[in-house]
Amino acid sequence: MCGRYYVMDDIEEEAERFARDYREGRTPMADPAGKGAKDVHPTETGTILRRQEGRIVSASVSWGIPVRRGQPLIINARSEEVWEKPLFRDRMEKGRCIIPAMGFYEWDREKNKASFCPPDRQILFLAGLYGLYGGKERFVILTRDAQGAVRPVHHRMPCIIPASEVPAYLAEEKQAASLLSAPAPELLRTQEYVQQTISSFFTGADQ
Question: pTM to 2 decimals?
């Protein structure tokens, strides 16, 4: 699963630049070196890329879908199941989105935190879906079986879309399905062997 991720301080400006590059036919390149980072937690607003009126645009959307009063938010959705589940089926048809991130965190069974990012420190484009839930636009992050550096820490990880394939993921349903199951990119793992208290971060699980 993915219970927290981190972005550069100026993610809104960066996301709008990504959207502009895609609209103009360029694959965006990001260099976050030297930029401050901030964590994004469930219930908070995150910046997404989405397709709107045939164009890729950026938007600020709340992370997590409420299901029932008193129950945790749904913050992740299993990519293998989203076309079958009523809560997500129509969103996968017309509500796919991308969440730009510098990296993400996972915790192992001993509650030790690990962070994951590309070795070249470029931006990750996490697959997601969004929609109107409870009168408010919200998104979830799509997950898959863990691969590579993530596997020893956790059995699930976010689905990562190559920067060059973001337009196809947003525009083409069949291509989106293929991209969700493509091999994950190489990631750099930084492990913190310190006991963590994470109940405040894990407000939801894969559904």
Answer: 0.88
